[in-house]
Amino acid sequence: MQKDIKDYFEQTITPLIAEKYPKLASEMSILIPGSYGLGIADEFSDLDAVIYLDDPLWQTHGGQLQLMLEHCPHSFAKTVGHPEICVHPSWWLLNGHYKEFLENKADLPWEKVSIEDLYELQENLVLRDPHNIFDRLRHATAPERFPDWLWKKLLILGLKKLDDDLVEYQQVVRRHRMLESHTMLARVLEDLLHLGFILNKRYYPWQIHLQWAFGKLPVLASRVLLDLEIVISSPDWDKKLVSIRAIRDIYEEYIRQKKVLTPEILKDLLWAVRAEAWSNPHWYDRVTKCRQKAKEAGYDSSYGWVWSLWGWVEHQGQTKDNDKAVDHGRRNQE
User: Fold this and answer.
1) Cys-Cys crosslink for 32: which of 125, 159, 208, 271, Cβ 3.0 to 4.6 Å?
2) Can you point out the beta strands (E) in 99-180?
């Protein structure tokens, strides 16, 4: 299928462009996203192709080129109203941050680029790259270069999101609210798949290719897919929930065995998120202090979040509100 795409461009598209816009033909870079770019197209797939031009060329000739391409012979399935081939400026790559990655700056804006965009850049077919833009960007954004602290952040946030979505999923299932149950199940499945990629330190694709790409992961995929099949196929909503929790347990077991996260983070995900544990190695000291202050005030240690949220721990002396809390806690003990 990828050979068909190459032949289509070499025999049809590139000659047409070269005839009318020879400068563009020599300068353009071409990326094939989607199913065709991954080599998994079927009879339902439509072609997505992107021609990238430097901004001056795009400004002066991009619009005319786009209109010309709209009238090219279409050899592949085409979605109505959707261009088969789009003409973009190069600066759109990586959400507008491609030059920073090309220049390999010290403080790269990793968090401003989506994981899906990184996957697309790394995994999809490149047809033309006269200035080695894609080659250099792939090197600069390789998963091995993705910051460890950011993998950790994605994992902590992903686990917290999964747990929150699971609570809501269980609530709507118990209330027999089927529309919401299906909606929440879709969210939970996406959470589970994303976590698998993050634990493998691999980028993930857009939703339409998630399961296919998940099956190629080197770690955990085979075990998780068995339970995912039950979640998808079982008509019993309780069985779905059991399998979802089994996948959650598989992930946590792996995290503990490989020491990906500390036991404290796994135990207190909410605190870990609020204290940004991925960049704060001493985050748990504050948790301990807040819980101790709550106990000293006569409350259960679980109320430590109040001391954290209102900033009572930071004050050298107690605020009036803190004094009231202490007095109230002591009266409760009495």
Assistant:
1) 125
2) 125-128
